[in-house]
TrEMBL record:
Principal place of residence: nucleus
Region (Disordered) residue spans: 1-26, 116-153
Segment forming the signal sequence: none
Protein name according to UniProt: Zn(2)-C6 fungal-type domain-containing protein
Keyword entries, A-Z: DNA-binding, Nucleus, Transcription, Transcription regulation
SMART domains documented for this protein: GAL4
Organism expressing this protein natively: Penicillium polonicum
Compartments where found: Nucleus
Pfam family, one: Zn_clus
Molecular function as annotated in GO: DNA-binding transcription factor activity, RNA polymerase II-specific; transcription cis-regulatory region binding; zinc ion binding
Lineage: Eukaryota, Fungi, Dikarya, Ascomycota, Pezizomycotina
GO-annotated cellular components: nucleus
All residue ranges annotated as the Zn(2)-C6 fungal-type domain in the record: 42-74
InterPro entries: prtT, Zn2-C6_fun-type_DNA-bd_sf, Zn2Cys6_DnaBD
């Protein structure tokens, strides 16, 4: 018995004479991991037989297991847990020091810093601690997500409405729904400034720049908010979108743009299954018009939410007579939210902007539009135009709606997703659409006035959109030719395509308003300008003899435009910066294939001419082996124009 007591004392790692010391050590361990204080010294075989285990200082195997050839396993699960806890604490400290050092290096080099450590007990950007995040996540999982779409956007009862009523599911339109509660918790807790992403001074400058200039390129979509404090208090999402777009158009705000863009995408990603308000749709719309890399994602989400909110039905509340404007009946009485005429007008304008954005993306990416063009709100644009309350911005929006309805017909009739040559019978259709475009321009050119913030850009923009429409119509005659001569019945349209492309660049070179707006206009302009240059060079390369084209004159026009683009101050993420090297290479390739001299003022390596701008800090990409400027991988995302191919003319002209 004394022997067993002695063994027990050894196993417990202390004896009676060292009890005080053991108690002190146990207290230290309790601070690390409460309740685990045993130190294991005997192997499993000896413990099983309840005999003494003579373990050498160097570790297993013990004397008995070595003598008998047994497998000596030291079960140190409890002790290992204690030691591992200590090691984890040390590793956390080491990783924190490495993270801080790396962050300092990134700030010194002016590159993107590392992401915040998730292993720490708190987040550096002011987010909730892990325990709180886990609790919120569990709560959200228990609440579930709302049915998508929650109910029908139409005025008549739909099958989903019956299901929601039978299943007693609360409507997401109610303020006490789980989605509303989550949106309220997450949408008002923090913003760009409170998270430390940008300072209040920088945010104030970005917001002022947006509302004093950029917002007027997009018809005053910003709404009633005109200051930073209003945005912070009411809609952090709209603040993130405005700051991101504004930073994109400032030549010295590259780092700010990258930080704001990351935060904006994170906010949108986290809000996928949450209900948001009209200002959230406004933020998505702003982002879609200017941020090319994620434009389709923003627009698709905005259209889905607009349908759930029934924005298109706000059109009904503005007019009592809807005869001939669609199949949807007039609601018996407008909802309480529609009693406010100003709110209804704002919703209608927002729907029209979503329609414009959707049609733009449909043209740029050769895909079907998401919004139907035969809805009453779309075909009833003239009724809205003739309202007494119609503003200058309304006229500009409706000019786009009218133009894109014509271009949508061109897409549907002539096709945009195949490479089959057009049949001769469509020559008359092309002429008919050309006349419709002429009438459109004549109608709206008389209605446009000078804008107090961006001058005559609306008038110049109208002319440019007219040329874009002609270009989109007439380029169709080159489909499926594969270098073969243009058929005689399409020669006039082919000549019009060439002349239109030249006119686009001549307008840019001759109109100061367009030159000033190169950094400010939505990305649809830049993509269509880039395509005009690409199409013009393809026509010069393949059809200069048949169409009697003066190649040197066309090359000189593009050469001058390239010089203008290079001398335009912008950050590398801006479309102007990103499309110029591709057009430059296309020009050199076209000149080489024809065998004519390359314009001497166009450098092969890209944007090196920016250093000619006094006071402009040029940002260069490292030179690749071929002498051409290489770009970061994420910049190539803007070149998502493999589907914007206008078949037979595919070229990666944006990189």
């Amino acid at each position: 018995m004394p022997k067993r007591k002695r063994e027990s004392a050894v196993e417990n790692g202390h004896n009676e004479s060292s009890s005080d010391q053991g108690q002190k050590g146990g207290q230290d361990l309790v601070e690390v991991l409460p309740g685990i204080t045993r130190k294991i010294t005997a192997c499993a075989a000896c413990r099983k037989n309840k005999i003494r285990c003579d373990m050498p200082d160097e570790g297993a195997p013990c004397v008995r297991c070595r003598r008998r050839g047994l497998s000596c396993i030291l079960n140190r699960s409890l002790q290992s847990l204690i030691e591992d806890t200590k090691n984890v604490k040390l590793l956390q400290t080491d990783v924190t020091h490495l993270h801080d050092t790396l962050d300092m290096l990134c700030q010194h080099l002016g590159v993107e810093g590392p992401k915040a450590l998730r292993s720490m007990g708190h987040d550096r950007e002011g987010s909730s601690p892990p325990a709180e995040n886990d609790q919120n996540q569990t709560q959200q999982e228990e609440e579930g997500c709302e049915v998508s779409p929650p109910d029908s956007p139409s005025a008549v009862q739909a099958p989903i409405d019956t299901f929601l009523d039978i299943a007693k599911i609360r409507s997401p339109h109610s303020s006490d729904s789980p989605a509303s509660a989550r949106a309220s918790r997450s949408g008002t807790s923090s913003d760009l400034i409170s998270k430390g992403i940008i300072s209040a001074t920088v945010a104030e400058r970005l917001v002022h720049h947006y509302f004093s200039r950029l917002d007027h390129y997009l018809y005053g979509i910003g709404g009633e908010y005109q200051g930073l404090e209003q945005l912070r208090a009411n809609t952090p999402f709209l603040l993130a979108a405005i700051c991101t777009v504004s930073a994109l158009h400032h030549p010295q705000e590259r780092v700010v743009y990258e930080a704001c863009n990351r935060e904006l995408r994170s906010l949108v990603a986290k809000s996928t299954f949450e209900k948001r308000d009209v200002d959230y749709i406004r933020a998505l719309c702003i982002s879609s018009f200017w941020l090319a890399d994620a434009s389709r994602i923003f627009c698709s989400d905005a259209i889905r939410r607009a349908a759930d909110m029934r924005l298109h039905r706000s059109f009904d509340s503005l007019f009592e007579d809807r005869t001939g404007l669609g199949s949807e009946p007039m609601p018996s009485e407008p909802s309480p939210s529609m009693q406010n005429l100003s709110a209804a007008t704002d919703r209608v304008r927002l729907w029209y902007l979503l329609f414009v954005c959707d049609q733009h993306l449909s043209i740029l990416h050769n895909r079907d539009s998401l919004l139907r063009s035969d809805k009453g709100i779309a075909v009833g644009w003239e009724l809205y135009l003739h309202r007494a309350e119609t503003t200058e911005s309304d006229v500009r929006i409706l000019s786009q709606v009218s133009l894109l309805l014509i271009m949508g017909q061109v897409r549907d009739v002539l096709g945009s997703d195949n490479q089959i040559p057009l049949p001769p019978a469509l020559a008359s259709q092309i002429l008919n659409y050309s006349r419709q475009l002429d009438k459109w321009y004549t109608k709206f050119s008389a209605l446009f006035v000078t804008n107090a913030f961006i001058g005559d850009f609306p008038k110049r923009g109208l002319q440019l959109h007219y040329q874009f429409g002609k270009l989109y119509l007439t380029h169709q005659v080159f489909k499926g030719l594969c270098g073969r001569p243009v058929p005689p019945h399409f020669l006039s349209a082919a000549t019009m395509a060439h002349d239109t492309a030249v006119s686009i660049f001549e307008m840019i070179l001759s109109e100061p308003e367009l030159q000033e707006g190169l950094v400010g206009m939505p990305h649809y302009f830049h993509v269509m300008i880039a395509f005009a240059g690409h199409l013009l060079l393809e026509i010069c390369q393949n059809y200069y003899e048949q169409l009697a084209i003066k190649i040197q004159d066309d090359f000189q026009v593009i050469n001058s435009a390239l010089n203008l683009f290079r001398n335009t101050q912008c950050i590398p993420q801006h479309p102007i910066w990103r499309m110029t090297p591709g057009l430059n290479r296309k020009l050199h390739g076209c000149a080489a294939s024809i065998g004519v001299p390359v314009p001497s003022t166009v450098p092969v390596g890209g944007l090196s001419a920016q250093d000619a701008i006094p006071g402009h800090e040029a940002l260069y990409y490292p030179q690749g082996p071929g002498g051409e400027a290489s770009q970061p991988l994420d910049e190539l995302l803007f070149a998502d124009f493999g589907e914007f191919n206008f078949p037979d003319l595919t070229s990666n002209f944006m990189t």
